[in-house]
Known about the structure:
Blueprint: H1 3-10, H2 22-27, E1 37-43, E2 51-52, E3 55-56, H3 57-69, E4 78-83, E5 94-101, H4 105-113, H5 123-133, E6 140-147, H6 157-167, E7 170-178, H7 183-194, E8 200-203, H8 206-216, E9 227-232, E10 246-251, E11 256-263, E12 268-269, E13 274-282, E14 285-293, E15 299-304, E16 306-307, E17 312-314, E18 318-320, E19 324-330, E20 338-343, E21 354-356, E22 363-366, E23 372-379, E24 386-395, E25 400-402, E26 406-408, E27 412-418, E28 426-431, E29 441-444, E30 451-454, E31 460-467, E32 474-483, E33 488-490, E34 494-496, E35 500-506, E36 514-519, E37 529-532, E38 539-542, E39 548-555, E40 562-571, E41 576-578, E42 582-583, E43 588-594, E44 602-606, E45 617-620, E46 627-630, E47 636-643, E48 650-658
Parallel strand pairs: 1-4, 1-6, 6-7, 7-8, 9-15, 18-24, 26-32, 34-40, 42-48
Antiparallel strand pairs: 2-3, 4-5, 9-12, 10-11, 10-13, 13-14, 14-16, 17-19, 19-22, 20-21, 20-23, 23-24, 25-27, 27-30, 28-29, 28-31, 31-32, 33-35, 35-38, 36-37, 36-39, 39-40, 41-43, 43-46, 44-45, 44-47, 47-48
Helix pairs in contact: 1-3, 3-4, 3-8, 6-7
Amino acid sequence: MSRLTTLLSAALTAATATAVSTQLSAQTMASDPSRPSTMLVFDVSNSMWGQIDGVSKIEIAREVIGGLLQGWDPDTDLGLIAYGHRKSGDCSDIENVIPVGKVYPEVFADQVNNLTPRGKTPLTDAVREAADVLNYRDTAATVILVSDGVESCNADPCALAEELERGGVNFTAHVVGFDVGRIKDQGQLSCLAEKTGGLYLTADNADELTEALQTVAAPPPPPPPMLRLEAAESETGQPLNNGGVVWTVVNLDTEESVLVAEAKAAPSLEVGAGRYMARAELGELAGAVEFDYAGEADQTQRVVMKLVAQATLEAAPTAVAGSAIKVAWTGPDNQNDYITIVATGTEEGKHGNYAYTRKGTPANVRAPDEPGAYELRYSSGKTRATLGRLPITVTAAEAMLEAPPTVVAGSAIKVTWTGPDNQNDYITVVATGTEEGKHGNYAYTRKGSPANVRAPDTPGAYELRYSTGQDRATLAMLPITVTEASVSLDAEPTAVAGSSITVTWSGPDNQNDYITIVASGTEEGKHGNYTYTRKGSPTKVRAPDEPGAYELRYSNGQSRSTLVALPITVTAATAELEAPPVVPAGQNFQVTWTGPDNQNDHITIVSPDTEEGKHGNYTYTRKGSPLKLKAPDQPGSYELRYLMGQSRSTLARLPITVN
């Protein structure tokens, strides 16, 4: 039997006298304060009339709850609070339907079945009332919320969760989101569970709702083993009971930080088995120890602290934002020691841009993009302790841009610039008002000035930006207008299938622009046979083998958008074959033909049942008519086929016997 089945049944005994039967009132007993109590908070808002597979959610919920109450543990207390079932549009419609106490399954189920969805979703205040009823400040308390929607009464369930977690002895809220579709809505519900150490589960049907309720009602697991740390000035001395001890703990197997510069006298950690390093710092004292933790039982690990080894740093007092700072240093140069730059006052153990000391002195550390007061730190790679520090001021970088005020869509913009040219700085073009840090087409400043940045394909108002490579901040901006390109196409109105179409064009001839032929109505950006405009005008584009209505398109090489289109009709190609009706096996024979003679068209001899497009012995039509073709070595019935070189479709066929 699930614990939720145990918990849900418990609530029915409490006697809201007008809501339950006389029998229930006579048998009501108070919840035992010596054990944790649970309150089911049930959403009966108007949205519960929504249907799943033709059945309303309220009917599904009633049936699931009724089923769980059967065989309920009589020693487990439970209560029921419902909201949204008495009035429409009333955020105060919250009722303690069944006080916490012994459960009578049939009466409890009757109460649930009598709840009718009508109103709003004041789930935050309902959970608060449940916590107060359970006396959460003095006793362990659990709330199970079943809801199909988010708070609709201008309250914040996340803020309530933080309040209950801070003020409760051992308060937990489990949440079951029933048919909650939107990720945004799920986030509001899951917050209530996550911030109180509860579970958030979703259910989209009766089976999933049953499973979710059984899961959240299961008895809590035993407390996990804990790793406890203590600091002392000797192996045998008393532990330091000082909340100013700063701890850093790293899992050496995964190189992940468990604690980073956290001040606490004696931290307790729930971590998995592995090899760890713990460092403790207090004033000029520091110590570190590496140890193994099995993760199967509580373990106390002592760290003995001694005087810290020191390091020195030397660098210019100022540096331009984003530039490389040369830092001369002395220090222990232990494994993974590093020089970092951080804002003045940054928490101990944190780092910004850095360089390992193993690369020698001076080290090159990149300045942040944000001007201000910083400090360079020599940090221990093992413990992240600061062994030396040096103040430094980061000054603002400056940049300037120059370019034509208007450019043609898709063309190359020549941008003359000045600026710091720091690592990965770039010039980009974006629509006016684009969010800071976003980029469009760009060129790195390391390629020199002027930079070539390709204009967007869509005409409009844009701006060039000089952006820093480190945090994409804009150092300079220049407005620019992108104008529409002028384009034209000219070709014969019809072309034979598979033939070469001569196309005269004018246009911007931007990088990778191309002329293509596609069926009329083809989706924008798709292409068929094509030729790049860089090959000049006129150019040649091969017609498809399938007759029909087509259009020639001048397509932009950047976005594949169509700048101009020209209708063209592709007419069917025809062919005829003439050859002796009987030819000797393995011998050459003569075939006379007429046909389009398009690129790679060929005459082949195959058995009559050969799949379309397959070939046997063949000769290209470019060799003229008549041409010679070798008969197969195996006697039998065959056919000659004229195959188009592009699609290998058959234009003509002629039966022939090989003997």
